[in-house]
Amino acid sequence: MEPPNSPQVEDGGEEDEEELSGGEEADYRTSSGRGSLLTRRGITLRVLLKDGLVEPGDGVLAIHYLGKNFVGDLLNDGKIRWVETGQIFNSPSAWATHCKRLVNPAKKSGCGWASVRYRGQKLAQYKTTWLHKYQPSADMSMVSEEDDDEDEEEGKTAVQTDEKNKNNKTGLNGLLFFRVCSFLVSDFSKVHLYFVTDVMVSRRTDRERIPVRYCTLGTRDATRDPHTLVELSAFSAINRFQPFNVAISSNVLLLMDFHCHLTTSEVVGYLGGRWDTNTQLLTVLRAFPCRTRLADRESASAVEEEICQNLFMRGLSLVGWYHSHPRGPALPSLQDIDSQMDHQLRLQGSNNGFQPCLGIICGPYYHGNQGVASTITPFWVVPPPEQRPSDYGIPVAVEVTYVQDNFLTSDVLNEMMLLVEYYRAAPDLVQFNQYWCPDTTMMDKIKGSLSCHAPKDQAYSQILEHVYSQLSVMH
Fold first, then answer.
1. Which of 21, 48, 117, 153 is most buried, most CB within 10 Å of its CB?
2. CA distances from 197 to 253, 300, 333, 375, 471 (A)
3. Three-state DSSP state, 317
Protein backbone atom coordinates (compact mmCIF):
# COMPACT_ATOMS: atom_id res chain seq x y z
CA MET A 1 0.00 0.00 0.00
CA GLU A 2 1.10 3.54 -0.68
CA PRO A 3 1.96 5.70 2.35
CA PRO A 4 -0.50 8.46 3.28
CA ASN A 5 1.68 11.20 1.83
CA SER A 6 1.49 9.61 -1.61
CA PRO A 7 -2.12 8.39 -1.72
CA GLN A 8 -3.28 5.87 -4.24
CA VAL A 9 -5.98 6.98 -6.64
CA GLU A 10 -8.77 4.48 -7.12
CA ASP A 11 -10.81 4.39 -10.29
CA GLY A 12 -14.26 2.99 -10.16
CA GLY A 13 -13.92 -0.03 -12.42
CA GLU A 14 -16.10 -0.54 -15.43
CA GLU A 15 -19.33 -0.30 -13.42
CA ASP A 16 -18.54 3.05 -11.81
CA GLU A 17 -18.82 6.60 -12.99
CA GLU A 18 -15.45 8.16 -13.56
CA GLU A 19 -14.78 11.82 -13.02
CA LEU A 20 -14.23 13.52 -16.35
CA SER A 21 -11.59 15.99 -17.37
CA GLY A 22 -12.68 19.45 -18.49
CA GLY A 23 -12.52 18.46 -22.14
CA GLU A 24 -14.43 15.27 -21.57
CA GLU A 25 -17.16 17.15 -19.71
CA ALA A 26 -17.63 19.33 -22.77
CA ASP A 27 -17.97 16.22 -24.94
CA TYR A 28 -20.99 15.15 -22.90
CA ARG A 29 -22.89 18.32 -23.79
CA THR A 30 -25.09 18.20 -26.87
CA SER A 31 -23.90 21.67 -27.80
CA SER A 32 -21.50 24.25 -26.43
CA GLY A 33 -22.18 27.01 -23.92
CA ARG A 34 -23.95 27.37 -20.62
CA GLY A 35 -27.30 26.62 -22.21
CA SER A 36 -26.13 23.34 -23.70
CA LEU A 37 -27.61 20.04 -22.55
CA LEU A 38 -25.32 18.13 -20.23
CA THR A 39 -25.82 14.39 -20.08
CA ARG A 40 -26.01 12.46 -16.81
CA ARG A 41 -22.37 11.35 -16.96
CA GLY A 42 -21.29 14.90 -17.65
CA ILE A 43 -22.63 16.15 -14.30
CA THR A 44 -19.63 15.40 -12.13
CA LEU A 45 -18.43 16.65 -8.78
CA ARG A 46 -16.12 18.95 -10.72
CA VAL A 47 -19.15 20.50 -12.45
CA LEU A 48 -20.94 20.98 -9.13
CA LEU A 49 -17.82 22.59 -7.66
CA LYS A 50 -17.33 24.87 -10.64
CA ASP A 51 -20.91 26.11 -10.50
CA GLY A 52 -20.86 26.63 -6.74
CA LEU A 53 -23.42 24.03 -5.69
CA VAL A 54 -20.90 22.29 -3.44
CA GLU A 55 -17.65 23.43 -1.88
CA PRO A 56 -14.48 21.49 -1.09
CA GLY A 57 -13.99 20.66 2.56
CA ASP A 58 -12.78 18.14 5.11
CA GLY A 59 -15.27 15.50 6.22
CA VAL A 60 -18.16 16.88 4.16
CA LEU A 61 -18.89 13.56 2.41
CA ALA A 62 -20.33 10.49 4.13
CA ILE A 63 -21.64 7.01 3.40
CA HIS A 64 -23.96 5.07 5.72
CA TYR A 65 -24.04 1.37 4.86
CA LEU A 66 -25.20 -1.61 6.93
CA GLY A 67 -24.72 0.30 10.16
CA LYS A 68 -21.23 1.57 9.25
CA ASN A 69 -20.12 5.15 8.63
CA PHE A 70 -17.45 6.31 6.17
CA VAL A 71 -16.24 9.92 5.98
CA GLY A 72 -14.52 11.60 3.04
CA ASP A 73 -12.95 14.93 2.13
CA LEU A 74 -14.06 16.69 -1.06
CA LEU A 75 -10.94 17.99 -2.81
CA ASN A 76 -10.64 21.06 -5.03
CA ASP A 77 -10.36 18.93 -8.19
CA GLY A 78 -13.57 16.99 -7.45
CA LYS A 79 -11.84 13.87 -6.17
CA ILE A 80 -12.60 12.22 -2.84
CA ARG A 81 -10.10 11.45 -0.10
CA TRP A 82 -11.20 8.75 2.34
CA VAL A 83 -10.41 10.09 5.82
CA GLU A 84 -9.74 6.62 7.22
CA THR A 85 -6.80 5.74 4.97
CA GLY A 86 -6.00 8.81 2.87
CA GLN A 87 -6.85 6.94 -0.36
CA ILE A 88 -7.99 9.11 -3.28
CA PHE A 89 -11.03 8.13 -5.38
CA ASN A 90 -11.96 9.59 -8.75
CA SER A 91 -15.72 9.41 -8.26
CA PRO A 92 -18.49 8.86 -5.71
CA SER A 93 -19.17 5.41 -7.15
CA ALA A 94 -15.54 4.35 -6.88
CA TRP A 95 -15.47 5.33 -3.21
CA ALA A 96 -18.87 3.82 -2.44
CA THR A 97 -18.02 0.53 -4.13
CA HIS A 98 -14.73 0.24 -2.23
CA CYS A 99 -16.28 0.98 1.16
CA LYS A 100 -19.29 -1.26 0.67
CA ARG A 101 -17.17 -4.19 -0.39
CA LEU A 102 -15.24 -3.90 2.87
CA VAL A 103 -18.48 -4.49 4.78
CA ASN A 104 -20.04 -6.84 2.24
CA PRO A 105 -17.50 -8.47 -0.12
CA ALA A 106 -20.33 -9.70 -2.37
CA LYS A 107 -21.33 -6.14 -3.24
CA LYS A 108 -21.04 -5.52 -6.98
CA SER A 109 -21.34 -1.76 -7.31
CA GLY A 110 -21.49 1.33 -5.15
CA CYS A 111 -24.36 3.48 -6.52
CA GLY A 112 -22.27 6.48 -5.55
CA TRP A 113 -24.58 9.40 -6.30
CA ALA A 114 -27.40 7.74 -4.39
CA SER A 115 -25.19 6.57 -1.53
CA VAL A 116 -22.76 9.42 -0.90
CA ARG A 117 -24.09 12.38 1.06
CA TYR A 118 -22.72 15.91 0.98
CA ARG A 119 -23.41 17.67 4.29
CA GLY A 120 -26.24 15.23 4.97
CA GLN A 121 -27.91 15.40 1.53
CA LYS A 122 -27.60 12.83 -1.25
CA LEU A 123 -25.33 13.90 -4.07
CA ALA A 124 -28.10 12.91 -6.48
CA GLN A 125 -30.16 15.80 -5.09
CA TYR A 126 -27.37 18.24 -5.98
CA LYS A 127 -27.40 16.81 -9.47
CA THR A 128 -31.14 17.49 -9.64
CA THR A 129 -30.61 21.05 -8.37
CA TRP A 130 -28.00 21.68 -11.06
CA LEU A 131 -30.39 20.56 -13.79
CA HIS A 132 -33.25 22.66 -12.42
CA LYS A 133 -30.97 25.69 -12.34
CA TYR A 134 -29.07 25.39 -15.60
CA GLN A 135 -31.19 23.04 -17.74
CA PRO A 136 -34.80 23.39 -16.56
CA SER A 137 -36.09 21.84 -19.76
CA ALA A 138 -33.96 18.71 -19.37
CA ASP A 139 -35.57 15.29 -18.95
CA MET A 140 -35.24 14.62 -15.22
CA SER A 141 -34.63 10.95 -15.93
CA MET A 142 -31.16 12.14 -16.88
CA VAL A 143 -30.41 13.00 -13.28
CA SER A 144 -29.45 9.52 -12.23
CA GLU A 145 -29.81 6.04 -13.58
CA GLU A 146 -28.60 4.49 -10.38
CA ASP A 147 -30.61 2.19 -8.14
CA ASP A 148 -31.88 4.02 -5.05
CA ASP A 149 -33.42 0.97 -3.42
CA GLU A 150 -30.47 0.07 -1.25
CA ASP A 151 -29.97 3.72 -0.33
CA GLU A 152 -33.40 3.74 1.21
CA GLU A 153 -32.20 0.90 3.42
CA GLU A 154 -29.05 2.81 4.23
CA GLY A 155 -31.06 5.91 5.10
CA LYS A 156 -33.11 3.95 7.58
CA THR A 157 -29.96 2.98 9.44
CA ALA A 158 -28.37 6.42 9.46
CA VAL A 159 -30.23 7.68 12.53
CA GLN A 160 -29.84 4.34 14.26
CA THR A 161 -26.12 4.39 13.51
CA ASP A 162 -25.74 7.88 14.92
CA GLU A 163 -27.56 6.79 18.08
CA LYS A 164 -25.37 3.71 18.34
CA ASN A 165 -22.25 5.83 18.00
CA LYS A 166 -23.46 8.05 20.84
CA ASN A 167 -23.92 4.98 23.00
CA ASN A 168 -20.49 3.72 22.05
CA LYS A 169 -18.96 6.87 23.53
CA THR A 170 -19.52 5.16 26.87
CA GLY A 171 -17.19 2.43 25.73
CA LEU A 172 -17.24 -0.29 23.12
CA ASN A 173 -17.32 -2.88 25.87
CA GLY A 174 -14.66 -0.84 27.62
CA LEU A 175 -12.10 -1.71 24.95
CA LEU A 176 -9.36 0.37 23.42
CA PHE A 177 -10.81 1.00 19.99
CA PHE A 178 -8.21 0.97 17.27
CA ARG A 179 -8.14 1.99 13.65
CA VAL A 180 -5.35 1.30 11.23
CA CYS A 181 -4.25 3.90 8.72
CA SER A 182 -1.76 1.73 6.86
CA PHE A 183 0.53 -1.26 7.17
CA LEU A 184 3.78 -1.29 5.23
CA VAL A 185 4.59 -4.83 6.22
CA SER A 186 6.46 -5.82 3.09
CA ASP A 187 9.61 -3.91 4.05
CA PHE A 188 8.61 -3.03 7.64
CA SER A 189 9.87 0.46 6.95
CA LYS A 190 7.02 2.09 8.81
CA VAL A 191 3.83 1.14 10.60
CA HIS A 192 1.08 3.65 11.27
CA LEU A 193 -1.31 2.71 14.06
CA TYR A 194 -3.87 5.16 15.31
CA PHE A 195 -5.87 4.27 18.41
CA VAL A 196 -8.98 5.91 19.76
CA THR A 197 -9.70 5.28 23.42
CA ASP A 198 -13.27 4.77 24.57
CA VAL A 199 -14.15 4.60 28.22
CA MET A 200 -16.52 2.19 29.84
CA VAL A 201 -18.75 3.95 32.35
CA SER A 202 -21.17 1.23 33.35
CA ARG A 203 -19.95 -1.46 35.74
CA ARG A 204 -20.63 -5.11 35.05
CA THR A 205 -22.19 -7.31 37.68
CA ASP A 206 -21.27 -10.89 38.42
CA ARG A 207 -24.81 -12.08 37.79
CA GLU A 208 -25.21 -15.01 35.46
CA ARG A 209 -25.83 -13.98 31.88
CA ILE A 210 -27.63 -16.56 29.81
CA PRO A 211 -26.47 -16.54 26.14
CA VAL A 212 -29.16 -16.17 23.49
CA ARG A 213 -29.26 -17.56 19.97
CA TYR A 214 -28.57 -15.13 17.17
CA CYS A 215 -31.83 -15.95 15.41
CA THR A 216 -33.77 -14.59 18.41
CA LEU A 217 -32.25 -11.10 18.21
CA GLY A 218 -34.11 -9.65 15.24
CA THR A 219 -33.47 -5.98 14.42
CA ARG A 220 -31.55 -3.66 16.70
CA ASP A 221 -33.45 -2.54 19.77
CA ALA A 222 -32.19 0.39 21.85
CA THR A 223 -33.78 -1.14 24.94
CA ARG A 224 -31.85 -4.40 24.66
CA ASP A 225 -29.04 -4.93 27.17
CA PRO A 226 -25.75 -4.39 25.25
CA HIS A 227 -24.11 -6.95 27.55
CA THR A 228 -26.40 -9.70 26.23
CA LEU A 229 -24.24 -12.67 25.27
CA VAL A 230 -24.82 -14.36 21.92
CA GLU A 231 -24.08 -17.95 20.98
CA LEU A 232 -21.68 -18.43 18.08
CA SER A 233 -22.86 -19.81 14.77
CA ALA A 234 -20.85 -22.08 12.50
CA PHE A 235 -19.90 -20.83 9.03
CA SER A 236 -21.69 -23.86 7.60
CA ALA A 237 -24.88 -22.92 9.44
CA ILE A 238 -25.11 -19.68 7.46
CA ASN A 239 -24.06 -21.33 4.18
CA ARG A 240 -20.58 -19.81 4.23
CA PHE A 241 -17.05 -21.11 4.15
CA GLN A 242 -14.49 -19.73 6.57
CA PRO A 243 -12.67 -17.25 4.30
CA PHE A 244 -9.25 -17.69 5.90
CA ASN A 245 -7.16 -20.14 7.91
CA VAL A 246 -5.70 -19.32 11.33
CA ALA A 247 -2.65 -20.64 13.17
CA ILE A 248 -1.96 -19.47 16.74
CA SER A 249 1.27 -19.91 18.68
CA SER A 250 0.92 -21.60 22.08
CA ASN A 251 3.00 -18.80 23.62
CA VAL A 252 0.28 -16.37 22.51
CA LEU A 253 -2.31 -18.38 24.39
CA LEU A 254 -0.09 -18.66 27.47
CA LEU A 255 0.55 -14.92 27.76
CA MET A 256 -3.05 -14.02 26.99
CA ASP A 257 -4.37 -16.55 29.54
CA PHE A 258 -1.91 -15.30 32.16
CA HIS A 259 -3.01 -11.69 31.62
CA CYS A 260 -6.71 -12.56 31.94
CA HIS A 261 -6.14 -14.47 35.20
CA LEU A 262 -4.56 -11.55 37.08
CA THR A 263 -7.59 -9.32 37.68
CA THR A 264 -11.31 -9.58 38.30
CA SER A 265 -11.83 -6.76 35.79
CA GLU A 266 -11.87 -7.08 32.03
CA VAL A 267 -8.55 -6.75 30.25
CA VAL A 268 -7.69 -6.13 26.62
CA GLY A 269 -4.70 -6.71 24.38
CA TYR A 270 -3.67 -6.87 20.74
CA LEU A 271 -2.45 -9.70 18.53
CA GLY A 272 0.54 -9.43 16.22
CA GLY A 273 1.29 -11.72 13.33
CA ARG A 274 1.35 -12.06 9.57
CA TRP A 275 -1.21 -12.41 6.81
CA ASP A 276 -0.27 -14.44 3.72
CA THR A 277 -2.55 -13.53 0.83
CA ASN A 278 -1.32 -16.48 -1.26
CA THR A 279 -2.21 -19.16 1.29
CA GLN A 280 -4.96 -17.13 2.99
CA LEU A 281 -3.28 -17.98 6.30
CA LEU A 282 -3.37 -15.67 9.32
CA THR A 283 -0.56 -16.55 11.71
CA VAL A 284 -0.81 -15.12 15.25
CA LEU A 285 2.70 -14.95 16.72
CA ARG A 286 2.57 -12.50 19.63
CA ALA A 287 0.16 -11.19 22.22
CA PHE A 288 0.57 -7.59 23.37
CA PRO A 289 -1.25 -7.01 26.69
CA CYS A 290 -2.40 -3.45 27.34
CA ARG A 291 -1.04 -2.52 30.75
CA THR A 292 -3.57 0.21 31.46
CA ARG A 293 -6.89 0.61 33.18
CA LEU A 294 -9.79 0.62 30.75
CA ALA A 295 -10.84 4.12 31.79
CA ASP A 296 -7.33 5.60 31.86
CA ARG A 297 -7.08 7.85 28.80
CA GLU A 298 -3.81 9.42 29.88
CA SER A 299 -1.74 6.24 29.88
CA ALA A 300 -3.55 4.53 26.98
CA SER A 301 -1.74 6.43 24.23
CA ALA A 302 1.70 5.65 25.69
CA VAL A 303 0.85 1.95 26.06
CA GLU A 304 -0.44 1.74 22.51
CA GLU A 305 2.58 3.58 21.14
CA GLU A 306 4.79 1.00 22.84
CA ILE A 307 2.78 -1.81 21.22
CA CYS A 308 3.09 -0.07 17.86
CA GLN A 309 6.86 0.06 18.23
CA ASN A 310 7.01 -3.60 19.29
CA LEU A 311 5.04 -4.60 16.19
CA PHE A 312 7.39 -2.63 13.98
CA MET A 313 10.59 -3.95 15.61
CA ARG A 314 9.45 -7.55 15.15
CA GLY A 315 8.24 -7.10 11.58
CA LEU A 316 4.67 -7.93 12.54
CA SER A 317 1.34 -6.41 11.65
CA LEU A 318 -1.75 -6.00 13.78
CA VAL A 319 -3.99 -9.02 13.13
CA GLY A 320 -6.51 -8.93 15.96
CA TRP A 321 -7.36 -8.30 19.58
CA TYR A 322 -8.39 -10.15 22.70
CA HIS A 323 -10.30 -9.38 25.86
CA SER A 324 -11.58 -11.23 28.91
CA HIS A 325 -14.92 -12.12 30.45
CA PRO A 326 -13.50 -12.84 33.91
CA ARG A 327 -16.45 -14.73 35.43
CA GLY A 328 -18.72 -15.22 32.44
CA PRO A 329 -18.88 -17.42 29.34
CA ALA A 330 -16.31 -16.69 26.65
CA LEU A 331 -18.99 -15.61 24.18
CA PRO A 332 -19.37 -12.19 22.52
CA SER A 333 -21.84 -9.65 23.84
CA LEU A 334 -23.80 -7.38 21.54
CA GLN A 335 -21.18 -4.70 22.18
CA ASP A 336 -18.41 -7.18 21.36
CA ILE A 337 -20.11 -7.98 18.06
CA ASP A 338 -20.24 -4.31 17.09
CA SER A 339 -16.64 -3.78 18.23
CA GLN A 340 -15.40 -6.76 16.22
CA MET A 341 -17.28 -5.64 13.12
CA ASP A 342 -15.73 -2.19 13.43
CA HIS A 343 -12.25 -3.65 13.92
CA GLN A 344 -12.67 -5.91 10.87
CA LEU A 345 -13.77 -2.97 8.77
CA ARG A 346 -10.89 -0.73 9.83
CA LEU A 347 -8.25 -3.40 9.39
CA GLN A 348 -9.59 -4.24 5.93
CA GLY A 349 -9.67 -0.55 5.11
CA SER A 350 -5.93 -0.28 5.65
CA ASN A 351 -5.12 -1.71 2.24
CA ASN A 352 -6.76 -2.64 -1.04
CA GLY A 353 -7.09 -6.35 -0.33
CA PHE A 354 -8.89 -8.48 2.19
CA GLN A 355 -7.17 -8.96 5.54
CA PRO A 356 -8.99 -10.66 8.41
CA CYS A 357 -9.06 -9.34 11.96
CA LEU A 358 -9.34 -12.05 14.61
CA GLY A 359 -11.21 -11.53 17.86
CA ILE A 360 -10.54 -13.75 20.90
CA ILE A 361 -12.44 -13.90 24.19
CA CYS A 362 -10.89 -15.57 27.23
CA GLY A 363 -13.04 -16.72 30.16
CA PRO A 364 -10.69 -17.62 33.04
CA TYR A 365 -12.97 -17.90 36.08
CA TYR A 366 -16.29 -19.04 34.65
CA HIS A 367 -17.49 -22.04 36.66
CA GLY A 368 -19.07 -23.52 33.57
CA ASN A 369 -15.60 -24.21 32.12
CA GLN A 370 -14.37 -27.77 31.85
CA GLY A 371 -11.86 -28.19 34.65
CA VAL A 372 -9.34 -25.47 35.48
CA ALA A 373 -8.55 -24.55 31.89
CA SER A 374 -9.82 -21.19 30.63
CA THR A 375 -12.24 -21.19 27.73
CA ILE A 376 -10.64 -19.40 24.78
CA THR A 377 -12.95 -18.48 21.92
CA PRO A 378 -11.71 -17.16 18.55
CA PHE A 379 -14.53 -15.50 16.64
CA TRP A 380 -15.36 -13.36 13.63
CA VAL A 381 -18.44 -11.41 12.55
CA VAL A 382 -20.29 -11.79 9.25
CA PRO A 383 -22.20 -8.63 8.22
CA PRO A 384 -26.00 -8.86 8.19
CA PRO A 385 -27.80 -9.39 4.87
CA GLU A 386 -28.28 -6.25 2.77
CA GLN A 387 -32.04 -6.64 2.97
CA ARG A 388 -31.77 -6.50 6.79
CA PRO A 389 -29.26 -3.69 7.40
CA SER A 390 -30.56 -2.98 10.90
CA ASP A 391 -29.69 -6.45 12.18
CA TYR A 392 -26.63 -7.23 14.25
CA GLY A 393 -23.64 -8.85 12.61
CA ILE A 394 -23.55 -12.63 12.86
CA PRO A 395 -20.88 -13.91 15.32
CA VAL A 396 -19.27 -17.09 14.03
CA ALA A 397 -16.75 -19.50 15.52
CA VAL A 398 -13.35 -19.54 13.82
CA GLU A 399 -11.57 -22.84 13.44
CA VAL A 400 -7.88 -22.49 14.28
CA THR A 401 -4.74 -24.60 14.36
CA TYR A 402 -2.70 -24.31 17.54
CA VAL A 403 1.05 -24.48 16.99
CA GLN A 404 3.05 -25.83 19.91
CA ASP A 405 6.12 -23.72 20.70
CA ASN A 406 9.30 -25.48 21.74
CA PHE A 407 10.25 -23.05 24.50
CA LEU A 408 9.12 -20.00 26.42
CA THR A 409 10.66 -16.92 24.81
CA SER A 410 12.31 -14.14 26.79
CA ASP A 411 9.76 -11.71 25.30
CA VAL A 412 6.87 -13.64 26.83
CA LEU A 413 8.60 -13.97 30.20
CA ASN A 414 9.37 -10.24 30.23
CA GLU A 415 5.74 -9.38 29.45
CA MET A 416 4.58 -11.63 32.28
CA MET A 417 6.85 -9.89 34.80
CA LEU A 418 5.70 -6.47 33.57
CA LEU A 419 2.09 -7.54 34.12
CA VAL A 420 2.94 -8.75 37.63
CA GLU A 421 4.44 -5.36 38.46
CA TYR A 422 1.51 -3.49 36.92
CA TYR A 423 -1.17 -5.34 38.87
CA ARG A 424 0.81 -5.73 42.09
CA ALA A 425 -1.07 -2.98 43.94
CA ALA A 426 -4.31 -3.15 41.94
CA PRO A 427 -7.54 -3.19 44.00
CA ASP A 428 -9.03 -5.78 41.62
CA LEU A 429 -6.04 -8.12 41.79
CA VAL A 430 -7.07 -11.77 42.09
CA GLN A 431 -6.31 -13.16 45.58
CA PHE A 432 -4.34 -16.25 44.61
CA ASN A 433 -4.39 -17.71 48.11
CA GLN A 434 -8.19 -17.88 48.06
CA TYR A 435 -10.20 -20.78 46.68
CA TRP A 436 -11.73 -20.90 43.23
CA CYS A 437 -13.64 -24.04 44.16
CA PRO A 438 -13.59 -26.17 47.34
CA ASP A 439 -10.44 -28.12 46.48
CA THR A 440 -8.66 -25.67 44.13
CA THR A 441 -7.00 -22.37 45.01
CA MET A 442 -6.72 -19.50 42.56
CA MET A 443 -3.00 -20.30 42.31
CA ASP A 444 -3.80 -23.92 41.42
CA LYS A 445 -6.28 -22.60 38.89
CA ILE A 446 -3.83 -20.38 37.00
CA LYS A 447 -1.09 -23.01 37.08
CA GLY A 448 -3.43 -25.67 35.71
CA SER A 449 -4.76 -23.45 32.95
CA LEU A 450 -1.34 -22.29 31.80
CA SER A 451 -0.05 -25.87 31.72
CA CYS A 452 -2.45 -26.42 28.78
CA HIS A 453 -0.20 -24.12 26.72
CA ALA A 454 3.09 -25.50 28.02
CA PRO A 455 6.10 -25.41 25.65
CA LYS A 456 7.69 -28.72 24.69
CA ASP A 457 10.81 -27.81 26.65
CA GLN A 458 9.90 -28.67 30.25
CA ALA A 459 12.46 -26.19 31.54
CA TYR A 460 9.68 -23.64 31.24
CA SER A 461 8.17 -24.93 34.50
CA GLN A 462 11.11 -23.68 36.56
CA ILE A 463 10.86 -20.28 34.89
CA LEU A 464 7.13 -20.03 35.55
CA GLU A 465 7.61 -21.03 39.18
CA HIS A 466 9.56 -17.80 39.59
CA VAL A 467 6.58 -15.90 38.15
CA TYR A 468 4.16 -17.74 40.43
CA SER A 469 6.31 -16.96 43.44
CA GLN A 470 5.88 -13.27 42.62
CA LEU A 471 2.12 -13.70 42.45
CA SER A 472 2.02 -15.34 45.87
CA VAL A 473 3.50 -12.27 47.56
CA MET A 474 1.29 -9.71 45.80
CA HIS A 475 -1.33 -9.53 48.56
1. 117
2. 25, 7, 19, 27, 29
3. strand
